[in-house]
Fold:
Amino acid sequence: MNRGREAADGRNPAGHAVPFAFPLRVYYEDTDAAGVVYYANYLKFLERARTEWLDRHALPLAELERHHNVVFVVTRAEIDFLGAARLGDRLEATVVFEATGRAQLSAHQTVRRDGDDLVRARIRLACLDRGGWKPARVPAELARLLEAPR
Structure:
């Protein structure tokens, strides 16, 4: 992970997106009978990082739902499993968002241990109207964050 200087907008001095990193710890409940993180639990780790990114940018999911009447749903998940995490491991889940349309976005994510990628994922999300479950425009505050120069 790039641990260099980061601007207030989440960019490094060269203008490239710096991944947001959310720290995680592997608990017993996260592991399977072999003592490694059960593969589906990585999706939970990735979700937590996306949610924390929104909170960090003062856009909590509950507020987006309440004030903009929208929800975000995962429409596609591409995941590469490169290594295994075990009970007690300290991990970080990263996220870099990009706008991919007026009503959808993608998250490029990793789960890492000591700087080594264990999981790489691309998650596609759709923004939907909470009432009718039809595509809805990404709220302006979020769109501005996603459109900032890279």
Notes: The chain has three helices and five strands. Residues 20-147 form a domain with the Thiol Ester Dehydrase; Chain A fold (CATH 3.10.129.10).
